[in-house]
Specification:
With 418 residues, the chain is mainly α. The protein has helices spanning 3-21, 27-31, 36-63, 66-86, 90-107, 110-121, 128-156, 167-186, 198-217, 220-251, 254-277, 279-285, 288-308, 312-338, 346-374, 377-389. It has one domain: MFS general substrate transporter like domains (Growth Hormone, Chain: A).
Length: 418
Amino acid sequence: MTLRRRFWLMTGLRWFPTGLLIPVYALLPLHRGLSIAEFGAVVAVQGFVVLFLELPTGGLADSLGRRPLMVTSALVALASYATFAFAGTFAWFLAASALSGVFRALDSGPLNAWFVDQTLASGEGGSVAKGISGAGAVVGTSMALGAVAAGGLVAWHPFAAIDALATPFLVAAALTLVQIGTTLVLMRESRPAHSLTFRSSIRAIPRTIVAGAQLAVGNRVLRALLAASVFLGFGVVGLEQFMPIRLSELLGNPDMAGVVMGPVSAAAWGISAIGAAAVPLLLRRWSMPAVSIALVIGEGAMVVVMGLAAGPAGLILAFFCTYAVHTAFGAIYETMLHGQVSSSHRATVLSLSSMVFQPAGSLGALVLGLIATGVSSGMALVVAGVVFGCAAPLFLVKTAPHPIRSGTGTGRCGFHPR
């Protein structure tokens, strides 16, 4: 199996369980008695945990290796899914979200950094953008299949002893075991002879973090991309977490919303896969910054339309339009990030981006939760879309040439979707 196919397979196994959860992630806590504001606090905990752990785990991935971090992140994800499935109080949902934060901190960077390192080592740096955009299409397809399965599981309700909305969490936990086994077999990693032991890797974390932070401070493109993550994180949490809530309100039935969100999410991620696959075509005519600006403005505008939609049909149509550009934008954003760093700091810089993105999402969850509670979920979506679009000017920052290019366009400058 080629390197690219191994990367895409592991990407699919990583994101399929997440697709299972998207239709029910917001609905399960609300079904079990949490208010929208409390749910916002639950989501926020994840981002704050990421804030504290993101750089240490990124530094560990750069000093110890990518595969150990991927396996560990999957184990923590399994614990998070199981806790969500059985949580019955606000405190237990907070604990599940905190575990999710640990999982995301460990997960943000190792797999993609491994692929880029292996690709560059083979002398095929020009194919990095193609591999990452292809991974974006795989993410979309996997999320779509997962969402379809989630809707079917909720409708089927095979385990009478637990809520139907909890079933996808249990299945996601089981599938994570498959991900772990596949990672151990396929993610072959050749560490240099001077690779660090676990203990020395822990001691090397501060040095790796400082070096990565210095790189970001000294690179104006990285500074702009990290600043953009603030607006992106705030806006994306509205798209991901308040869409099911808004649909539930318009339908007037949380269980029905859980069933409908399955095929709706599946179709949306299928559309996003097509959008991601179209990235190389876009880059043949326009630069990465130009495409990024167009996509970020378009996505923000569609989130605003979601908030203004007066019925389920309009909401779902706007949701589809949003996802037509969502993953494509993420693939271009990440490629731009990779274009600014070397292998020794690749995972650290990806973690820097996630460290900014996730807490911004936590802030968004809190603020948008209060807006949804005090005004409406529609207004929360409008605010999310406006903030998302505010990232556009930051992609105008110029950059110097770098070996990582699309191979088909002139832009080279990097978005990590939640």
